[in-house]
Write a structure and sequence with these properties.
Layout (H helix, E strand, L loop, with lengths): L4 H17 L3 H10 L8 H18 L23 H10 L7 H10 L1 H6 L4 H20 L14 H31 L2 H9 L1
Helix pairs in contact: 7-8
Amino acid sequence: MTEGPREAAERYRFEKWQREQGLSSDEVDAAHAAAPPARGFSAAERAAVVENAIQQAIRRGEFDDLPGAGKPIPGLGESHDPDWWIRRKIESEQLTGLGPPALRLRVESAELDERLDALAGEADVRDALEDFNRRIVEARRQLLGGPPVVTPTRDVDAEVAAWRERRAARIAAQAQAETDAAARRRHPWWRRRGRDVT
């Protein structure tokens, strides 16, 4: 019968330990023969061993000066929230894109104009808006619970027109900035200053 991967790993660890200790296999066999047969510990015996180890560590001072010692536990005593640990992990890791669809869609709706402005063509803007509207409708149809979906769908034609206006304003501002930069390059500051003085 072949040995499994766990047994092979355990045998490897044991042989490594044996080499580190400088023991021969005969010495190990003699130690096993002299040891009393192993028996399992009851739950009470295991609990007593753990409690004893904790008390010894307290006496040695290993739990002194831990971070947060003597301070109240943050969030303790607030309303009962069974998902408190998820919220704390999301806040500490600054994760995005998580949560019920109603909240995700609300956040996405607030950032939609910026996302649309990053797109290059009108067809891409229309596709993004249609996808956004489709996900809102799907979220309203689901009966999974959670907060209600109050995010309104967007009028595609009106949003495309607003995107065009924002894009035209951006292009005009960029052209003006380039014109101003070219004017500054044509007339160095010392010449402009001399002209202003005279």
